[in-house]
Amino acid sequence: MDTKNCIINHENYTDSSYDGLSQDEVRRLQEMAPELRDALLRLRRNIHSRQQEREQEAETRELNKLLGVKTPHDAVEERNAKNLQAAMAEQARRDREAVKKKFLCQQGLTEAGIPRLFHSATMENIIRQGLPEALEYPRMRICSYLENIEKCCDLGTGLILTGPCGTLKTTFACSIMLEAFAHGIEARFELVMSMLDRLVMLEKSNKDEYCRTMQKLCSVPILVLDDLGAEGHHADFVRSKLEQIIFQRHANGRALIITTNLSPAGLAKLYPGRIMERLRERCLVLEHNCA
Q: What GO biological process term is on the record, naming one (predicted)?
């Protein structure tokens, strides 16, 4: 009797038990102990049956989707998706409330790097004190930024405030930070010269703190770099810190607010094209001039 007939005539099996098996696999099954062969074939049938059930369920779900019919499985998935969305929204709300609580106070503002002189530099206070007519256009554009600060933050849109000393560039930059805190968005203020000196010192003395500081500067939702260009021509390894921050923030879609006494042309002379290209892509330039 040949192998195939032996198998088909076996009292425990049917032709379907061997569907898809090669003759060599059939032969090896015949050489096994009956108990092991029975267990393997049962396992194979169960696996095949479960695969068919899953395929049938998938086809049914697809058909129901086309017909607009919701199955119990669809209802469960929809409920789980809504619960997950609600949980994420609640966590985001708590995170924003934590930011407000932490930074909307004197200690928090100082911790965020804002000089004490600018702790009350809200746009309302700036307008109340009066502005030169020449600064009305920058004020209007910054007010528009404040009205859409959450969207600007999500898109990584920033500003470059240029102009001579005394044109309220730093004041306006701090007003953006205060508005961010009011919306529960974290922000950080850094005087560029001091920041670069601190990074160089930390890299030499405390690698762990240096890495934490760089990570913070690259990831905080809004970073204010005050007085860019005043640092002058530093050594390449010092300038590379600034490049790294700008590159990482550009790649991560993080908003950057820059104040500088230099014109856009002056910045282009001082910084490599790769830096200026990234700044132009993400930042709107506002020229402050009281003349």
A: DNA replication
